[in-house]
């Protein structure tokens, strides 16, 4: 049965395909008559424009926005992690860039300076810092004042911070280490 019509091994006759030549389509825009070019457009509809009111204060529109407490997560776990991270940054064990998202530029500058000083000190072979206790208070909506007790190099230290809800997250605006 070799050579039958349904057999895939059977060679098919070569059919010559004809190439069709098509004209190149016109890609240039049509030329408009002068009366259409200079015709007044309807002022109520302007396409391809961004609807921004430049008469308003742009700093208020594009600056950080205050966030109410109901739109923010519980601050206690964040305060515990931030206290641990701050002590590690000031000890030179963690880069300060890990805290840039959670701090204002002023607090970040202080942490960066203290991390630089810690980097010049010789390394210590003592226990790492441990956060023992955290207290959190909310004096106003979207504002948290917290303190932490930290055991650091066989010393008990206090860390106080103020967090404000900005752009849907907590931001450290003030930081004191005693």
Q: Would you tell me the structural class of the helices and strands? A: alpha+beta
In total, the number of strands is 4
Alpha-carbon Rg, integer: 34 Å
The total of helices stands at 4
Give the CATH class of the domain at 69-177: Alpha Beta
Relative helix content: 10-25%
- How can the largest sheet be summarized? 4 strands, antiparallel
> Approximately what portion of the residues adopt beta-strand conformation?
15-25%
Strand order in the sheet with the most strands: 1-2-3-4
The CATH topology of the domain at 69-177 corresponds to: Nuclear Transport Factor 2, Chain: A
Low-confidence stretches: none
How would you state the average pLDDT, rounded? Answer: 83
Q: What sort of overall outline do the alpha carbons produce when their principal axes are compared?
A: elongated
Q: How many angstroms separate the termini?
A: 97 Å
What's this, in brief?
It contains 4 helices and 4 strands. It is an alpha+beta fold and 178 residues long.
Task: Give a verbal description of the structure.
With 178 residues, the chain is of the alpha+beta class. It has a domain of 109 residues: Roll (Nuclear Transport Factor 2, Chain: A). Strands 1-2-3-4 form a four-stranded antiparallel sheet, covered by helices on one side. A hairpin with a 2-residue loop joins strand 3 and strand 4. It is elongated, with a radius of gyration of 34 Å. The chain starts with 33 loop residues before the first helix and ends with a strand. The mean pLDDT is 83.
């Amino acid at each position: 049965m070799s050579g039958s019509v349904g057999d895939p091994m059977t060679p098919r006759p070569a059919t010559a395909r004809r190439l069709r030549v098509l004209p190149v389509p016109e890609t240039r825009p049509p030329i408009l008559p002068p009366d259409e070019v200079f015709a007044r457009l309807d002022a109520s509809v302007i396409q391809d424009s961004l609807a921004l009111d430049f008469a308003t204060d742009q700093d208020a529109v594009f600056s950080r926005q205050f966030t109410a407490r109901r739109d923010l997560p519980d601050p206690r776990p964040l305060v515990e992690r931030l206290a641990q991270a701050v002590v590690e940054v000031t000890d030179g064990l963690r880069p300060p860039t890990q805290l840039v998202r959670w701090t204002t530029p002023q607090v970040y500058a202080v942490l960066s300076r203290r991390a630089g000083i810690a980097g010049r000190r010789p390394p210590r072979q003592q226990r790492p810092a441990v956060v023992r206790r955290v207290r959190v208070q909310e004096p106003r909506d979207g504002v948290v004042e917290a303190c932490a007790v930290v055991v650091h190099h066989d010393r008990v230290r206090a860390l106080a911070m103020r967090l404000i809800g900005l752009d849907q997250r907590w931001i450290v605006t003030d930081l004191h280490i005693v």
